[in-house]
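C-alpha cells please, single chain.
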Amino acid sequence: MLYHNRKLYSVLVTIATLTASIIIYQVYLIQFNSELYYSADETPVVLWWTPFGNEGKLRECGNYRCYFTSNRTFQYHRKISALLFYGSSFQIDDLPKWKSDGVPWGLIHEESPRNNPILVQQEALNLFTYSSTFSRFSDVPLTLVDLPGITELLGTEYFVSTKEKTKLMYTKDLAPLLYIQSDCDTASNRDVYVTELMKYIRVDSYGACLNNAEFDKRLKENYLEALNREDFLSFAGNYKFTIAFENAVCHDYITEKLWRPLIVGSVPIYYGSPSFKDWLPNDMSAISVLDFKDPRTLATFLLDLSRNETAYDKYLSHKLVDNYEIANRRLKETLEQKQNWLRNGFGNYVDEFECLVCEDVQKANKQEIKIVDRKHYDCPLPKNPLTSETDRDNWWTKKWLLEKCGAKLLAHYLKNNLTINREKFEDDKIKLHDEKKC
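Here you go.
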C-alpha cells in the first residue's frame, strides 16, 4: 500500500511539474508573439543588448517611432536598426555574433573609466555611432546628471551661516574641511594629495580612506546609503569647505562630489574635470586644487579664507543673494531644460538617447558620417595630483595602457566578425602590450 501511495505521489508531482512547464512556456510564447506582433510591420527595432532602457515598448519619437526591446532574438530581425549598450555592462565576451555598418551601435555611459577602462580608448569608442556620456560633446550629454536642479542648487534648506560654522568649529571641534571617501584605490590617486594637505590644515575624514573621525550613531550605519538623506546633508552643511575629488580625471566628468557641497552651502575644494568651472553658478562657487602650486599653498589660502568671513561669503553668493541669478549661461540653460522633465532623473536621459537613435536611423539622405571618438569620453592617462605628471606607479595607469591593446584587438575581432574567447583574448592582449605593438 505504501509503495502504491509513493508511486501515485511521484506521478502527481511529475504531472504538476509538466503542467507548470507548459504554462511557463505558453506565457513566454504569448510575450514573444506579442513582441513579434508589435515589430512585424516596418517599425525599426532598436535592441538593448545590455538591458537598460525601455523593454518591449513601442515609442513615438517626434515624427518617428521605434520598437525597443532587450530580447536578443531580435538581433536577426529584418528590421533591426540599432544596438544599444550600457557602458558598465559592456563585456568583450558577451557581444553580438556580427557587426555591420548598416546597424549602428550606441553607447550610454555616465560612469568613470574605472568601471570599464577599455572604453577610454579611441579604437573602442570608434565602434559606436551614437553616445550619451558625461561629455558635452556626446549626442546626449550626461554632464549634470547628478545635479537635481535649480531649486536644490539655490535653496537654503541645509544652509548654515558663516558665523554659525565658525562657532561650530569651536563648540563641536569641527575642522575647516570635510572629507568622506571609502574608495581608496582610484585613478585620480586623490588620497595622495589629501594626505599631504592634512599636514597643513585640519581635515575631518569620516570615510574608510584616511579615517580620523567618527559619525554619530544616526549616520554611522550604512552612511554610504545616506549621502543624499536630509540628516546627512544637514551635517555636511556645517563645514566651511568640502574636499570634492573625483575618482578619475576626465573632461566634463563631474559627479555629486561637486554638487553636494554646492547644494548644502559648503565651498567645494575640487579636483577632477579640468573643465569643471564651465558648469559653476559663478566664477567663485568653488576652489580648484590646480590653481595652487602645492597642498601647503592651498592650506594657507583656506586658513586665511576661513578667518575672513566677508571674503568667505563671496563663495556662497548663490545661497546668500536673494533672487540670485545664475551667471553661467551654459549651466542656466541646461538646468532650465531639466525643469521641464519629469522627476525620474536618469530615465529622462535614457528616453532622450533612445529617441535620438530612433530618429537618426530613419532619416533619409544623411550627409554626416557619425562616429564616437575620444571627445565623447575624454580621459587622459592618470596623473599624480602632487606633480601633475603621468602617474607611472598607479595601477590604473598600467590598466589604461593595457586596455589600449585590448581596444585594438577588440576592433580587429569585431570588424572581421571573429568569435571572441576571453582567455585567448586576454593572452593576446598581454602579448601585444609586451611587444609594444599598441
